Amino acid sequence: MPGLVIHVLDLLTALLQASIVVVSFARGYSRRYLTINLYLAASTIVLFLRYYILSRHGLLSEEYIYFYYYSDALLTIGLYFTLIGLYATVFEEMKAAQYLRVFTILLLIGTAAFSSAVVQQSGPRLITRYVVEMSQNLYFVGVILTYILWGAVLKLRETRTRVIQLVLSLGVYFSAFAGNYALRNLYPQLHFVWEFVPPTLGCLLPLSWAYAFWHIPEDARIAPSRLAVVPR
Amino acid sequence: MSRKRTVVFLAMLVLVGAMSLKTVVVTHGDGSIVMANSGGPVPPTPWKNSGGPVPPTPWKNSGGPVPPTPWK
């Protein structure tokens, strides 16, 4: 039964992701949010491929294990560039694209180098450890970058509702994963709860983005004063 | 400080912050992996699913004493 619920959530996730990409193409803003669309398309393809390999080889097969972790690393890199795409959108009026590119590449190289240094001491399966370590480190870089971006949105008084919705959704997504990890370690006896959290979050992110793309017009604005906490 | 140096400094600052956060979170963890992309049942970690012990390296598995080098 738990497996069935997870499969249904995964199916919903795939449908939502694919529909966002299709609607973006149909409405003509796929280029404006190119990184988001590429990430969602890749994520959908990977999800179907995972289930295909799972059905052919099984959960404990080397094929599934390696495909799962290697594809996760690629998707995390995709998520990183999605985040950088949102940075480019927020900072586009500052003409800081060149500096943003340098920042992006430097941070990616730094993360890759740090991951390499960490796994140097590992024994067998060095490349696999490196891939998993890199994926994990990039996830934490994403957490920090999302909070910095949210700070920039508040500081620059960004008013585009859709951009704010996209950034906030990503912030909640990243934070919830970290929270789930911490709670899982605090209360391991509730493992039957924690196993549902990642697929639920994986479904909520495209749901929130779908709302942003389908129901919030491109020119919708939100008052900056409503974003900041005003002391009374 | 030039803008380029500022960019380098900021990138390193973010990296240090992220790795510190990771250290804090993972140190008290059970060794499982934090995954940012769900989808599909999570398999065991690749280096924990092997059935037997890791075999010795090929150049350390000899049984007898090491013979003297031929040129002595």
Brief rundown of the structure:
Chain A has eight helices and no strands. Chain A has 232 residues and is mainly alpha-helical. Chain A is globular, with a radius of gyration of 19 Å.
Mean pLDDT of chain B equals 71
Range of strand content of chain A: under 5%
**Helical/strand content category of chain B:** mainly alpha
The structural class of chain A is: mainly alpha
Helix-strand pattern of chain A? HHHHHHHH
The fraction of residues in strands of chain B falls at under 5%
What distinguishing features does this structure have?
heterodimer; A: 232 residues; mainly alpha; globular; B: 72 residues; 0% strand; flat
Describe the fold and architecture:
The complex is a heterodimer of chains A (232) and B (72). Chain A is mainly α and 232 residues long. Helices cover 78% and strands 0% of the residues of chain A. In chain A, helix 1 runs parallel beside helix 8, helix 3 (62-90) runs parallel beside helix 5 (126-155) and helix 5 (126-155) packs across helix 6. The longest helix of chain A is centred in the middle third of the chain and has 30 residues, at 126-155. By secondary structure, chain B is mostly helical. Chain B has one helix and no strands. Chain B has one helix spanning 3-27.
